[in-house]
Amino acid sequence: MSFKYILGFAWCVFSVIPITQNTSEVNVRKSPTNKRATLEDVARLAGVGAMTVSRTINDHPYVSEETARRVRSAIRQLDYRPNHAARMLTGQLSRSIGLIVPDLADTFFSVVSHAVQETARESGYLVWLAASNYDPSIEAAQVEQMIHHPVDGILLVPVDSKDKYLKTVTAGTTPIVTIDRPIEIAATDSVGVENRAGARVAVEHLIGHGHKKIACVATNTHLVTIKERILGYEECLRHAKLPISKTLRLAGRDDVMPAMTELFSSRNRPDAIFAANNAAAIWVIEALREMKLEMGKHIALAAFDDVDFFALITPPVTAVRQPAPELGRMSARLLLQRIKGEFVSSSVRTVLPVSLVVRESCGCKKKE
Amino acid sequence: MSFKYILGFAWCVFSVIPITQNTSEVNVRKSPTNKRATLEDVARLAGVGAMTVSRTINDHPYVSEETARRVRSAIRQLDYRPNHAARMLTGQLSRSIGLIVPDLADTFFSVVSHAVQETARESGYLVWLAASNYDPSIEAAQVEQMIHHPVDGILLVPVDSKDKYLKTVTAGTTPIVTIDRPIEIAATDSVGVENRAGARVAVEHLIGHGHKKIACVATNTHLVTIKERILGYEECLRHAKLPISKTLRLAGRDDVMPAMTELFSSRNRPDAIFAANNAAAIWVIEALREMKLEMGKHIALAAFDDVDFFALITPPVTAVRQPAPELGRMSARLLLQRIKGEFVSSSVRTVLPVSLVVRESCGCKKKE
DNA sequence: CTGAAAGCGCTTACAG
DNA sequence: CTGAAAGCGCTTACAG
Fold first, then answer.
1. Which residue ranges make up each domain of chain B?
2. How high is the pLDDT of residue B19?
3. Which UniProt keywords apply (chains A, B) (predicted)?
4. Which of A277, B1, B57, B288 has the smallest C-beta neighbourhood within 10 Å, fewest atoms?
């Protein structure tokens, strides 16, 4: 279907080249002097009590500048770094959060993750990252493991927003913020986007082009977000008094061609398609190529979830753009606030706006 | 340059909707009974000593099946989970590794990260993820923070393989494996790909099409990997006795059009382009559109680093595909071996093969 | 097979 | 401003 011919090459060697060990690596590793310096060591060297060192590190007031200087110098000499594990044991915050997404290789989630990571770093937080592979049991296990690590809070893109494990987890003491979709069986903070309204705008745009038979194609139709988009699509058509066809649900790549062929040979052959998510859009685009139907000419297309390369496709694809970096930043900030206890209201659902990026697959022409 | 017209919408509301708190969330959180159970609690409930519980958890031999059963039941009753922080303090492995990449939003790195994450999970490891944003000082800080957390090992895509901080870090006790490129100032394990040979195959393919004037375009030319690819390009042309033009180095998006215009108006106007990395390829593609030059017809293009959507572009782009998931998996496995001490040889450099995915931008025609 | 003691490296009260 | 004591939750020797 996609036109790739892989060429093999004789030079494709898999080589493991041992490098001559010119550093004293092994010795260094075993050297006992290399053992990490502790608070005690620093205290001894600086000639003070352990508490004074601790206070200096934590910027407590009530340490004479004089002593602080001595301590700092000792710290530098020994290259001392506080042991995080010991700190956490005394009830300190771990200064870490967990992030669990379905698939890191998906552009949308990787952009969200990058933003989360950056926001966390700015606050001195480290982030655990895990991918659930769309498997609720993996998700539950990872959340568990993180909570007991422990982390100060968790950012989660829930695969199944009704899974019972969420009930237990949200009742616990670790704050949780969900990204992209809220949890349906408990009240937690969530940050998402205007799915329904976004779908409406995309479909309205197609209607504006004069299309009457608009089909909807989607994958992952069990997700609340996708359901919302489909609702938006239906609302819009109902409002315009146009016929609503049942949404074409694609489960896998193999479904695509048969389903599309059937759709186009039916007497309800559509003149426009609304793809409710990017996977559906990509599959539709591939299928249309296969079927020799030119987008923006034989058939119009508008998608939900804009992917950068949609601009590079011919013709460029019109799509609803989600503010992925904002989603990451906002959710991370909200979680950090919860952790610090700065934010004590009840759960909030934040809904971010989306915008339609009009290109050419919908039938619009490029302005020169 | 890219044709996007953002439409604003009146309904683009940013709404923060407080949800009525119908769960007893707050009470639960403060409830002291909710405090995590400890080893001691379990021991008391099971009527045994703490050690017995510890041994049961860790599957030590020498625990009578009878006692073990009682302990396990107590664990279940109290929903006990060992505190990781306490364990680590007694010198146990943390069962976590760190991964630092330049940019998580980059497809190549996000695919690598996903694979690393998965491999780690299969071994019960959790992974810290950080992005350096191509800034060596951020990279150094994150490595530091992870090492002192502590983590058992670190996977790193070094931004500057000569940065002096690497000297210190690699001399330490935490094993480090670099991905994509080795460190130049110390001997550590690394897992990368055949950059030079890959470039050669791509350029040879262009030569095979009869092109004589082949230009090379690249970004991030300070990276060893890119240098290698450029060397491969030059070797190949030298071998074919064709003129070698100086590599066009693009620093930012704004450089592209001026540089390309100049390149094409010079008397050495190329008939083919080798893009040494995906960013360069994308910029070149955009520029060619702008210049109304059709790939595979007016100009041939082959790129290093295949990106999924290259197949969806018109014409589909011919590119050297790197085994990103393997890169992630292999490096993670190698690191885990080092951590367990299973692997005690000196540092190894692993080089994975790449393959050319021939599509149409090079001038090949799609087989029907 | 089982448990009491000591300690991992830090911090929180408590006394100076 | 500073320090000695106790404890966070576990595990490693050491004795039964």
1. 25-82, 96-193+325-352, 195-322
2. 33
3. DNA-binding, Transcription, Transcription regulation
4. B1
Secondary structure E strands in chain A:
5-7, 15-18, 96-101, 126-131, 153-156, 176-179, 189-193, 214-219, 248-250, 272-275, 300-304, 318-321, 348-352, 355-358
pLDDT (tens digit, 9 = 90+) per residue, A60-98? 877 788 888 888 888 888 888 888 888 888 878 888 999
Q: What amino acid occupies position B108? A: F
Tokens of B53: 């519980």
> Is A306 in contact with A321 (CB distance < 8 Å)?
yes
Encoded tokens for B362: 């090079």
- The predicted-structure confidence for A267-299, as pLDDT tens digits, reads as follows 889 999 999 999 999 999 999 999 999 999 999
Superfamily of domain A195-322: Response regulator (3.40.50.2300)
Give the closest residue to A35 by CA, choosing from B167, B85, B154, B173.
B173
CATH code at B25-82: 1.10.260.40
Structurally, at CATH architecture level, domain B96-193+325-352 sits in 3-Layer(aba) Sandwich (3.40)
Its pTM stands at 0.87
Least confident of A363-367, B19-23, B38-42: B19-23
Local structure of residue A55 (DSSP, 8 states): H
Q: Same CATH fold, A195-322 and A96-193+325-353?
A: yes
Per-residue pLDDT at A112 exceeds 90: yes
Beta carbons within 10 angstroms of residue B97's beta carbon: 27
- Rounded CA–C1' distance between A62 and D11, in angstroms: 36
Query: Mind listing the pLDDT tens digit for each residue in A13-47?
Result: 333 333 333 332 333 333 333 567 888 889 888 88
Assigned CATH for A96-193+325-353? 3.40.50.2300
Choice between A340 and B336, residue whose per-residue pLDDT is larger: B336
Paired tokens of A180: 């992209």
Contact flag A117-B127 (C-beta cutoff 8 Å) = no
Per-residue confidence (pLDDT) for residue A367, from 0 to 100: 63
Q: Residue B318 pairs with which residues in a beta bridge?
A: B302
Q: Amino acid identity, residue B205?
A: H
A292 touches chain B (CB under 8 A): no
CB neighbourhood size of A82 (10 A): 18
Among all protein residues, pick the one whose CA is nearest to the C1' atom of D11.
B90
Closest CA to A119 of A347, A336, A350, A351: A336
pLDDT of A302: 97
CB contact A5 to B (< 8 Å): yes
Structure tokens that stand for A336 in this block: 């950090």
Give me B95's structure tokens.
Answer: 């069962």
